[in-house]
């Protein structure tokens, strides 16, 4: 790669024609310090396309929509009619925690991108998975040893 | 007659112009085309390191601070925030229910209900509104997004119509829940 460099003679002769301007005219506002700048390969390397998988594409989208649509009656029926049943509580717990996990996963993907946070991003994903497992166990314990999710919220709300 | 006029025109037009242009043109060309430029050869590693050092100083593109406040992206941000609030509450309570007996406490319904009964009513009614509003907003905005997934109401007028409907429905529903 050839890098051009202007000599002093050119600067002296073409001072009026080639005035040097700064790259930016406003103060640089940085949110985070820039990450270590690593350039992979050269400009002549072939482009690498991301792995194509339906499990991360349309199947994932369908699964998210199925969970969301299944949650609508499971949330609306106890919320507006007050009826409750242990099996309904169990189904609500499964879909609700799955929906919450998918939402938190989107937040982790957006706010801890793997390209920038090479170690923190997998750690956050595993922390989320651990919390989801603990939440499933906790809600199961609450549904079996206490009066259940729907009755519990109703009792707390009307106390 | 014609021969005499052409001879006079040629002599009067071209000889002074040539005299005027010749020294000025030469000096201008000499000044313009003479440049002293030196080039240096860089290895791939040196070029990459120089590019990396230049990229460190690139400014951020302007983003949240320059966008006009609009219902569209405000509701979208609020959807994620309310979802995190409701899901975070569920996660915190479930994990607390598991961990509390290790510290000698108990988070069962009877204990919490007894604590809530000691709070006066004039605090509980607005508190119920604040607690239930993230849930109701998230429910109705989620239904709004499911409506969009069927490619309905995706015009700008439809987006604003459903947005105002979500706001009205969530406020009314939370108000009803606060009064129970």
Written account of the structure:
Chain A is mainly alpha-helical. Helices cover 58% and strands 3% of the residues of chain A. Chain A has a domain at 58-158: 3 helical TM bundles of succinate and fumarate reductases. In chain A, helix 2 crosses helix 3 and helix 3 packs antiparallel against helix 4. The longest helix of chain A has 26 residues, at 86-111. The model of chain A has no long low-confidence stretch (mean pLDDT 84). Chain B contains 6 helices and 1 strand; from the N terminus they run αβααααα. Chain B has helices spanning 2-33, 44-56, 71-99, 109-117, 121-149, 156-179; one strand spanning 37-41. In chain B, helix 3 (71-99) crosses helix 5 and helix 5 (121-149) packs antiparallel against helix 6 (156-179). The longest helix of chain B has 32 residues, at 2-33. The chains are: A mainly alpha (159), B mainly alpha (180). At the A-B interface, strand 1, helix 1, helix 2, helix 3 and helix 4 of A face strand 1, helix 2, helix 3, helix 4 and helix 5 of B. Chain A: Pathway: Carbohydrate metabolism; tricarboxylic acid cycle. Chain A: Residues 83-89, 141-159 are mitochondrial intermembrane.
Give the key terms.
heterodimer; A: 159 residues; mainly alpha; 3 helical TM bundles of succinate and fumarate reductases; 3% strand; B: 180 residues; 76% helix; elongated; disordered N terminus; Succinate dehydrogenase cytochrome B subunit, mitochondrial (chain B); Succ_DH_cytb556 (chain B); iron (chain B)
Could you list the spans of chain A in which at least 5 consecutive residues all have pLDDT below 50?
none
Number of strands of chain B: 1
Low-confidence stretches of chain B: 1-16
Shape of chain B: elongated
Largest sheet properties of chain A = none
**Individual helix count of chain A:** 5
Mean pLDDT of chain B: 84
What percentage of amino acids of chain B are in beta strands? under 5%
**What assembly state would you assign to the polypeptide chains in this entry?**
heterodimer
Characterize the main sheet of chain B: none
CATH architecture of the domain at 71-179 in chain B: Up-down Bundle
CATH topology of the domain at 58-158 in chain A: 3 helical TM bundles of succinate and fumarate reductases
Distance, first to last CA of chain B? 117 Å
